[in-house]
Structures are given as C-alpha cells and as structure tokens.
Design a protein that fits this description.
Elements (H helix, E strand, L loop, with lengths): L10 H7 L1 H4 L3 H15 L6 H8 L3 H13 L4 E4 L4 E4 L1 H4 L1 H5 L8 H9 L5 H13 L2 H13 L5 H14 L3 H5 L7
Antiparallel strand pairs: 1-2
Length: about 180
C-alpha cells in the first residue's frame, strides 16, 4: 500500500502544504480539494456537483478538469455504473512531474481511456488528427470527452473542431486561459 493510500494520511493537508510544488492555481486547488473531500466521504462526483459547489460554469469546470488530467494529477475512470475521480497522480511526485503520456502512442492513450482496442476506423481518424492537430490538444479533447463519459471519436472530433473555431491551443488550455475573456 502506498503512503497516500493509508487511512491516517490527510490528503488535503498534504496538498495545501505542497501547493507551490504542485503549481496549482486557485481554481484547480479548489477543485482538487473538493474532489478529495467527495472521495473521502464517498459522495458521488459529477460535473454538476462540482459546478454547483464551486460556482463555476460547466465550460470552465471542464477546462480546469482537462488541465488537471493533462498534468496527470487527476485520472477519470468511467464504468457502466459510475465515473470515479482519482488524485493518485498528485501524490506520486514522479508521475506528477512526468509528461510521459505525451510521448506514448496516441493509439495506446486512446485504448487505455476507452478501455478497449480501437477499431480500424478509429485508428484512421486519430492518425488523421495527428497529422493536422497538436498532439497535446488531441489528448486534452480525449480527457474532456472522458469527463463527460462520451468516449467516441465523433464526440472528440466535435471538441477539436469547436476548439479550432475558438482559436484554442494546447498552450492556452495548459495555462487555463482557453475560453476566458
């Protein structure tokens, strides 16, 4: 059992004690603390619940969640019965600093997120995106789709097209500035 999985570990204290190391802004901090609180008290986490508690719009919440996922601080796992939010990456210093996901095959990333092998059509679509879209943006769109449990290349393609129309870049998303006026 890892140190952060022990019953006596206070995750919120650790997060607050390491804020400067984690590089979280105020919105990300509130979201992370809220997710940890929900997990500790076994409260179901939904985008609506997060928005209601923080006062953020769904669009802003989605952007913040995408950033946390891209940093590998947050992992969202969807099953047929529920979606679970895991902050394990935040507590593992090597994973929190590692951007390894950007170096792995896009096919591997999608198969891992989808929880199944990709079809030939899906692989072709991902390959097409990879030729014309920033790889990081593709992964962020995948994370957004995952947050809403809409794991299909059609949905991800709509996200990418919307972001292109709005002029979003991976840098804007990483900086948390995409969609903000």
């Amino acid at each position: 059992m890892k140190w952060f999985e022990q019953n006596y570990t206070n995750h919120r204290d650790w997060i607050l004690d390491h804020l400067e190391y984690l590089g979280l802004d105020e919105k990300e901090t509130v979201i992370v603390l809220l997710i940890d609180f929900f997990n500790e008290h076994q409260i179901e986490i939904t985008m609506d619940a997060l928005c209601r508690k923080t006062g953020m719009t769904q669009q802003l919440m989605n952007q913040e969640i995408s950033v946390l996922c891209s940093r590998k601080y947050l992992e969202i796992r969807a099953s047929s019965s529920r979606t679970s939010y895991h902050l394990d990456g935040m507590f593992n210093a090597n994973i929190a600093r590692d951007r390894e996901i950007m170096d792995s095959s896009l096919f591997d990333v999608f198969e891992s997120e989808f929880g199944r092998p990709l079809s030939q059509l899906e692989m072709q679509k991902i390959s097409d995106w990879n030729r014309s879209v920033d790889r990081r943006l593709i992964v962020y769109a995948l994370r957004e789709a995952s947050a809403y449990q809409k794991l299909s290349t059609t949905y991800i393609e709509r996200i990418l097209k919307e972001w292109q129309l709005k002029g979003y870049t991976a840098e804007l998303i990483e900086a948390g500035k995409a969609g903000r006026k």
